[in-house]
Structure formats: structure tokens, C-alpha cells
Write a structure and sequence with these properties.
The chain is an all-alpha fold and 83 residues long. The protein is built from three helices and no strands.
């Protein structure tokens, strides 16, 4: 069972990383893998938990990245005007 959890973790990490770049589709990539390794009644719950966690972490990550980019742009604009 431990090996199955490791496989699920690695596959979901890769699927949600690809999904973050491409804009979606991790669930479609994971359904066959989860269906092979988990009982069918646990697949929707596992997929929902993974999707929620990925969405929350993606929001936090993109918010930090966009805030850094925005602050850099503002700094450059102010430096050019007053520097």
C-alpha cells in the first residue's frame, strides 16, 4: 500500500504541475491512475481533495509572484522618474 501512495503522490504532483502551466486537466490525467490504485468509491474524494489543495496553493503562489512583479515594475518606474 505504501508503494501505491508513493505512486499516487508522484503522479498527482506531476499532473497538477502540468495543470498549473497548461490551465487545467489534472483530474482527467489522474482518474485512470486513481481508479487503478484506489477503490472506486474513494476516487471522487481523492480527486476533490487534490484539486482543492492544488487550487489553494496555486492562488497563493501566483499572488506572491504577481505581487513581486508588480512591485518590481513600480520600483522601476519610480527609479526612472526620480533617479
Amino acid at each position: 500500500m505504501a508503494m501505491g501512495l508513493i505512486i499516487i503522490f508522484i503522479c498527482s504532483f506531476l499532473a497538477f504541475a502540468i495543470s498549473a502551466i497548461c490551465g487545467g486537466g489534472a483530474g482527467l490525467m489522474l482518474i485512470p491512475i486513481l481508479g487503478a490504485l484506489l477503490p472506486m468509491n474513494q476516487v471522487p474524494a481523492a480527486l476533490s481533495i487534490g484539486t482543492f489543495t492544488s487550487s489553494a496553493s496555486r492562488i497563493i503562489l501566483f499572488k506572491k509572484i504577481s505581487a513581486g512583479i508588480l512591485s518590481n515594475i513600480l520600483f522601476q518606474l519610480l527609479f526612472r522618474q526620480f533617479g
